[in-house]
Specification:
The structure holds two protein chains of two kinds. Chain A contains seven helices and eight strands, in the order βαβαβαβαβββαααβ. In chain A, strand 1, helix 1 and strand 2 form a beta-alpha-beta unit. Chain B is of the alpha/beta class. In chain B, helix 2 links the parallel strand 3 and strand 4. In chain B, helix 13 packs across helix 15. The chains are: A alpha/beta, B alpha/beta.
C-alpha cells in the first residue's frame, strides 16, 4: 500500500451531504474483475453535468476532496476507494464518513480527515471562491493548513495512522498472530462448529 | 464472583477474540464468510499474487446474485459479456480454492443474505462477513454480521480473521403492538427517519422490545438489513424460540444431540440484566405508520398520509441544500401529499423484502385486484427456495393473474446490475433498501416502501395507505 505522509494540492469542493458510494462509482462499473481503471468513471453520472466540480478546469490535478457530512455511505463497494485513488485523490476531508468506506479508503492509502462541520464549510467556501486554492495536509503533524491562515488539527486512531504512514499491508500484520490464531481455531472449531460443513463443490 | 453484565454484542465479540495487541485493533475470528461474484474477484486474485491459500474453504460459501438476469432465457446465456465473465471468474475461483458455490442453476441459489439463513448456515453467536453492506441482515439471528470491502474479503480469505476496533453499542427498543399495516420495513424506515442515515455510524445496534420480539425471522431480517442505512455496520436481535423454530432441521443447522447442545448455548446469548449501552432509544410502536421515502436518502421518509416536506424545515444549511437537490432529482414539490404521487414501476424483491412472508403479505393485498394500466410491476423472489415455496402456495398465480411479472431469484432491480433497471425519469415503488440517485438505473426515482405498500401502489397507480385497503378473497390464502 502507498504510504501517506504530507500532501499539498489544489482542493476540489463537493458541497453535498450523504455522498453515497453509488454516486462515487455506479453499479455498471462493478462488473469488472480488475482493481484498476475506475478513475475515469468516478462520479460518472454527476460528471454528465458540465458544471459539476470535477469538470471545472480549476480543480484539474486536484488530490484533495472536501465534502459535507456522511461521505461514502451505502454500499460496501471498495470500487469507490479504487475510483477515488485511480482518479488521483489521496485525501478526503469531511465532517463524517461512513464506517465501511472509512476502512476501504485506509486500505488503499487514502487519508480521510474528519474536521468539525464549520471548519469544513470554511474549506468548501474557500475552495469554491479562490482560484487555485490549496491545502497542505500532514499526517505526521495531523494538521490541515492553507496559505490564508486556516489551520486545524485532526485526530486519528494511532494504529490506522501508523499503517498509513508506513504503507503497511494488513494481512501481513495479522499473520504476526498466526500461533494465537491456530490455538484459537482448534478450541473454537471444537466448541462452535457443530453443524455440518459445506463440502466445497459446485451445486449446478 | 459475579462478572459485569454484558450485552449480546459483547458476548459474541469476546468469544471471537484471537488476539488483543496493545494499541492496535483486536483480531476478530470470522465463523462464516459469504462470497458473491461482484466483490470477490480482486480478492481471489490478491491471494494468487501473494501466493496465499484460502485458510478455511469450509467456512466459505459462495453464490451468484448481483449480476444474474431474472428471466429464464437470460440466465442460460448471459448476454452482458462483462457480467458473464465475472460469474465465470467466480466459478473458476471457487473450483481452484475449494469453495462451495450455489450456481445459477442450483436449487439453493439466491441472494446471499436470503440463502445464508435459509440453509441454516447463519446461526446465533456467529461472526459472519460478506463483501456486501447488507450482511447486517443476518444479525437477526443473534449473530455479529457485517459488510466488508474487498481488501477485507481477501484478509478473511487469507487469515479467517479481521482486525477490528470495538464498535460502540446502541440499543433501540420498539415497544408495544405494531398497528395494522405497519410492517418490519416500516419499523426500519421509522427508525432511520428518527436517527438519520448517519445516526448509528460507529455503533452496532441491538434491536429489542416487544414489537421486535413479535416479528417473525423474516421481519427481523428486514429490520437488521436496514441497519446499514442508519450507518450501523451491524444490527443484532437476540435469538429466542422464534429463531430456534426457524433454524431447526435446516441443512446446515446442528442435528440430534448437537442441536440440543447448541440451543442451550444460544439461550445464553442475550443481553444481561443491567448491561449498559453507549446509546439507547425507545420508540413506541403506536407512533409508527406505513412509510414512503420521498428523497434520495433513506432518512428522507414520511408517513403515507404526510406531504412532501419543505426544505426550509431542514436543520442545517447543508441539509437544506440536500433537501432541495433531492426534490429536484425526484421531481417533487414541497407540500404535495405523497398519496397523490403516481408511479410507473413496482419492484417487490431484494435482500430487504424478498422472503416468503414478504411475498405472502404482498399477495394478500393483490388478490382479487389488477395492476394499474400504467404500471409495470415485478416480483423477484429472494431465492430458488422462496420461489418454490411461493409457487407451492400459489402466490405466483395470484401475482401473475394480477398482471405482475414473476421472475427468477437475484438482487435484480435493487441495484440494477443485471438487465432490470429503471429508465430515466421513471418512478418506482420499491421494497428495496436504497433510494439513492440512479440506484435502480440512471435518472430513475426510487421510493422505498413495504411489500404491502408496494403491492397497493401497483394496483392504484399511486402511493396508497394500506391501512385503508379493501382486502378481497382473503380466505383463498391458507
Amino acid at each position: 500500500m502507498q504510504s501517506f505522509r504530507r500532501l499539498t494540492s489544489v482542493v476540489t469542493p463537493l458541497d453535498r451531504v450523504n455522498v453515497d458510494t453509488d454516486q462515487i462509482i455506479p453499479k455498471q462499473f462493478l462488473k469488472r474483475i480488475e482493481r484498476t481503471g475506475y478513475g475515469e468513471f468516478l462520479f460518472f453520472d454527476w460528471r454528465k453535468d458540465k458544471n459539476f466540480e470535477l469538470n471545472h478546469p480549476h480543480y484539474k490535478g486536484s488530490q484533495i476532496l472536501v465534502a459535507a457530512k456522511n461521505f461514502g455511505c451505502g454500499s460496501s463497494r471498495e470500487h469507490a476507494a479504487w475510483a477515488l485513488s485511480d482518479y488521483g485523490f489521496r485525501c478526503v476531508i469531511a465532517p463524517s464518513f461512513a464506517d465501511i468506506f472509512y476502512s476501504n479508503a485506509g486500505k488503499n492509502g487514502i487519508l480521510l480527515v474528519t474536521l468539525p462541520e464549520e471548519q469544513v464549510q470554511t474549506l468548501l467556501d474557500r475552495a469554491a471562491k479562490t482560484e487555485g486554492y490549496k491545502l497542505t495536509v500532514s499526517l505526521e503533524d495531523q494538521t490541515v493548513k492553507d496559505a490564508l491562515g486556516f489551520s486545524a488539527s485532526f485526530t486519528m486512531d494511532p494504529f490506522r495512522r501508523y499503517c498509513l504512514l508506513e504503507g503497511l499491508d494488513d494481512i501481513g500484520l495479522s499473520l504476526r498472530h498466526a500461533e494465537a490464531l491456530d490455538r484459537f481455531e482448534q478450541k473454537h472449531d471444537a466448541a462452535f462448529w457443530v453443524a455440518p460443513k459445506p463440502k466445497g463443490e459446485a451445486h449446478a | 464472583m459475579s462478572s459485569k453484565p454484558k450485552t449480546l454484542f459483547e458476548k459474541v465479540w469476546e468469544s471471537h477474540l484471537v488476539a488483543e495487541p496493545a494499541n492496535e485493533p483486536s483480531l476478530l475470528y470470522i465463523d462464516l464468510h459469504l462470497v458473491h461474484e461482484v466483490t470477490s474477484p480482486q480478492a481471489f486474485e490478491g491471494l494468487r499474487l501473494a501466493g496465499r491459500k484460502l485458510r478455511r474453504p469450509d467456512r466459505t460459501v459462495a453464490t451468484v446474485d448481483h449480476n444474474v438476469p431474472t428471466t429464464l432465457a437470460g440466465r442460460v446465456l448471459i448476454e452482458d459479456a462483462i457480467a458473464a465473465k465475472q460469474i465465470d471468474t467466480l466459478r473458476k475461483n471457487c473450483a481452484d480454492f475449494g469453495v462451495t458455490l450455489y450456481d445459477v442453476q442450483s436449487a439453493e441459489q439466491g441472494i446471499v443474505h436470503v440463502i445464508g439463513p435459509e440453509l441454516g448456515l447463519t446461526k446465533p453467536g456467529m461472526t459472519i462477513v460478506c463483501g456486501d453492506s447488507h450482511t447486517s441482515t443476518q444479525g437477526a439471528f443473534g449473530a455479529l454480521s457485517f459488510g466488508i470491502g474487498t481488501s477485507e474479503v481477501e484478509h478473511v480469505m487469507a487469515t479467517q480473521c479481521l482486525p477490528q476496533s470495538k464498535p460502540k453499542t446502541f440499543r433501540i427498543a420498539v415497544e408495544g403492538e405494531l398497528p395494522d399495516g405497519v410492517t418490519a420495513k416500516d419499523v426500519a424506515l421509522g427508525i432511520i427517519g428518527r436517527i438519520g442515515t448517519d445516526g448509528a455510524t460507529g455503533y452496532v445496534i441491538e434491536y429489542a422490545g416487544s414489537a421486535i420480539r413479535s416479528l417473525s425471522m423474516e421481519g427481523r431480517m428486514t429490520v437488521c438489513n436496514m441497519s446499514i442505512e442508519a450507518g450501523a455496520r451491524a444490527g443484532m436481535i437476540a435469538a429466542d424460540e422464534t429463531t430456534f423454530t426457524y433454524l431447526k432441521g435446516r441443512e446446515f443447522a446442528p442435528q440430534g444431540a448437537d442441536w440440543d447442545k447448541a440451543v442451550s448455548e444460544w439461550r445464553k446469548l442475550t443481553s444481561d440484566e443491567g448491561a449498559t449501552y453507549d446509546r439507547e432509544l425507545m420508540i413506541p410502536a403506536i407512533e409508527l405508520a406505513p412509510y414512503v421515502t420521498w428523497g434520495t436518502s433513506p432518512g428522507m421518509v414520511i408517513a403515507v398520509t404526510d406531504v412532501v416536506p419543505d426544505p426550509a424545515a431542514a436543520e442545517t444549511d447543508a441539509d437544506r441544500r440536500g433537501f432541495e437537490r433531492a426534490l429536484e432529482y425526484m421531481n417533487l414539490k414541497a407540500g404535495v401529499p405523497i398519496e397523490e404521487v403516481t408511479i410507473d414501476r413496482v419492484f417487490i424483491g431484494s435482500c430487504t423484502n424478498s422472503r416468503i412472508e414478504d411475498l405472502r403479505a404482498a399477495a394478500k393485498v393483490v388478490i382479487g385486484h389488477h395492476v394499474h394500466a400504467k404500471v409495470n410491476a415485478m416480483v423477484v423472489p429472494g431465492s430458488q427456495k422462496v420461489k418454490a415455496q411461493a409457487e407451492q402456495e400459489g402466490l405466483d398465480q395470484i401475482f401473475r393473474a394480477a398482471g405482475f411479472e414473476w421472475r427468477e431469484p437475484g438482487c435484480s432491480m435493487c441495484l440494477g446490475m443485471n438487465p432490470d433497471i429503471l429508465s430515466p425519469g421513471e418512478r418506482c415503488a420499491s421494497t428495496s433498501n436504497r433510494n439513492f440517485e440512479g440506484r435502480q438505473g440512471a435518472g430513475g426515482r426510487t421510493h422505498l416502501v413495504s411489500p404491502m405498500m408496494a403491492a397497493a401502489a401497483a394496483i392504484t397507480g399511486h402511493f396508497t395507505d394500506v391501512r385503508t385497503w379493501e382486502f378481497r378473497k382473503e380466505e383463498v390464502l391458507a
